[in-house]
Amino acid sequence: MEYYVSNISEVKKEPVQVKGSKGAYIQWLITREKGAHYAVRKFTLEPNGIIPMHLHKYQETVVIVKGKCKVCVANNSYELKEGDYIFIDGGVKHSIINDNNDQLEFFCIIDYTDDMSIQAIDEKCG
């Protein structure tokens, strides 16, 4: 496919499948099924929503477009807000927490690897 045009409102919003996630939703905007070698996903976390600590082989870049959140990555914790972004390499544990009263929205760009599985980690965000 040479190109693809759509609107985010037309993409199904699904619950995030990382074990322990709460109030977290994902929309797969661009995928290999559309001919891309990477994926662009939009996430929405409701107030007090969480994607708990996990890791995977693929790299990701998270770009905050609305709200604020706490991101735990490796053994560090960061407060991110609209306009901030973070790159997380494959195999690095991380979690995202919306501990605010406003909705959080971010885009997440990932590469495709031979193993796209996600491993939940029973560990709290510092």
TrEMBL record:
Per UniProt, the keywords (alphabetical) are:
Metal-binding
The record's listing under Pfam families reads: Cupin_2
Q: What positions does the domain Cupin type-2 occupy?
A: 43-109
Entry's InterPro entries?
Cupin_2, GPI/OXD, RmlC-like_jellyroll, RmlC_Cupin_sf
Single GO MF annotation? metal ion binding
Q: Does the keyword Metal-binding apply?
A: yes
For this entry, the protein name equals Cupin domain-containing protein
